[in-house]
Amino acid sequence: MRGAARKARLFWPLLLVLVVADCATKRLAETHLPPAHVPHPVVGSVVNLTLAYNVGAATGITLGPYSRGGFSVLTVLILALLGNLYYRTPPDDRWQLTTLALVCGGAIGNLIDRLRSPRGVVDFIDIGFGSYRFWTFNLADVAVTIGATGLAWALWKKEAHAESLRATDAGGTSRGDS
């Protein structure tokens, strides 16, 4: 149980802080940035706060009229898979636990928006130069992106290490030999 408690002490506070911060910033955006699609400059025209709603997924991916339900179900399924990965993560793997908390917290934050309103996920961070703009996004999107990138890297490194051990073992060399 000691290992489970160590995992929980890192994972759950980070996840909860992220969900609360994401929900709070989205409510602030809805309160202070209307009407939608009107930029509020923060750093010249490079960084704007612009209220937008996204019924689809990242980069405008859509399932048409099934977007809200489809992406909600998909998110729950992905959270279940990530929950399994959390369960299998060793308590001392702080990097993997941190990245899992970021992905899960971001996914939950956007899921809350999908379930809360048919308008979709609240986005408000608008970055670009002049007419060349990146997709408008939110804190949850940042967490999912950073977390997924870090998680992919961690899993790749583990697989590369395991492959190296298999190759060493296949070559007839014991891992304990020098």
Determine the N-to-C terminus distance.
36 Å
Portion in strands = 5-15%
Structural class: alpha+beta
So how many helices? 4
User: Residue share in helices?
Assistant: 55-70%
The chain-level mean pLDDT equals: 93
Number of beta-strand segments: 4
Strand order of the largest sheet: 1-2-3-4
Overall shape? elongated
Number of domains: 1
Q: How would you spell out the order of helices and strands? A: HEEHHEEH
Taking Cα atoms only, what radius of gyration do you get, to the nearest Å? 20 Å
For the sheet with most strands, the description reads: 4 strands, antiparallel
Low-confidence stretches: none
Key attributes of the depicted protein:
single chain; 178 residues; elongated; 4 strands
Architecture overview:
The structure is a single chain. The model has no long low-confidence stretch (mean pLDDT 93). This protein is α+β, with helices and mostly antiparallel strands. The chain starts with a helix and ends in an 8-residue tail after the last helix. It is elongated and about 65 Å long. It has helices spanning 2-32, 67-88, 94-116, 139-170, and strands at residues 40-43, 47-54, 121-129, 132-133. The longest helix has 32 residues, at 139-170. The protein has four helices and four strands, in the order H-E-E-H-H-E-E-H. Strands 1-2-3-4 form a four-stranded antiparallel beta sheet. It has one domain.
